[in-house]
Amino acid sequence: MLSSMSNLMLLMTLGSVSGDLTPEVFSDLATLLSSCEQVESADIPSRLKELSRVIRKFRTDFTQLTIEEARSYLEQNDEEPGRLYREFIHCHGHRCIKEFDMLSVPWQLDPEPLIITLQHAVATPEPASVESTEPILSTPLNLWRRMALRLLVPWTK
């Protein structure tokens, strides 16, 4: 329960900048939470990070693909990116962005939000630590939000 609350606080901190929960905000959240290991739902950001790293290696033009082309590539590819994507959908396809909203559609049925998030993650270089993550986040952060993230990110782990 504590990790859910701290994840929600992180999401609110990032989302309050743009006023909405955009794919960039979720990509930034995945970047920040990618090193969490004790919570099952924390497996999502770490798998997304690994998947985006592998896609970046195998398909340099992934961010230029349409949603349909990217989906087709990931669903039909026999190389590592396709295999990792299918494993991700198998393990976490029942989830989605805003999964507590009863009208939200899980990634298995509509992977478009996931593909958009992956494209943003592929376009973002890999961070080494929380401090080094801040400069590469898509969400612009003022001093108070940076301080909040420095407190919240370790708390989610």
Name the descriptors.
mainly alpha
What this model shows, in words?
By secondary structure, the chain is an all-alpha fold. The chain has one domain (2-156). It has 8 helices and no strands. Helix 3 (43-58) packs across helix 6 and helix 4 (67-76) crosses helix 5 (80-92). The protein starts with a helix and ends with a helix.
Rg, alpha carbons: 15 Å
- Taking the alpha carbons of the first and last residues, their distance comes to 13 Å
Instruction: Give the topology string: H per helix, E per strand.
Output: HHHHHHHH
Helix-and-strand structural type: mainly alpha
Shape verdict: globular
Assign a percent range to the helix content. Answer: 55-70%
Number of β-strand runs: 0
Biggest β-sheet strands, sense, barrel: none
Number of domain modules = 1
- Strand proportion: under 5%
Stretches where pLDDT falls below 50 for ≥5 residues? none
Mean pLDDT, to the nearest integer, reads 81
- Summed up, the helix count is 8
Keywords: Signal
InterPro entries: PEP_Utilizing_Enz
Protein name: Putative conserved secreted protein
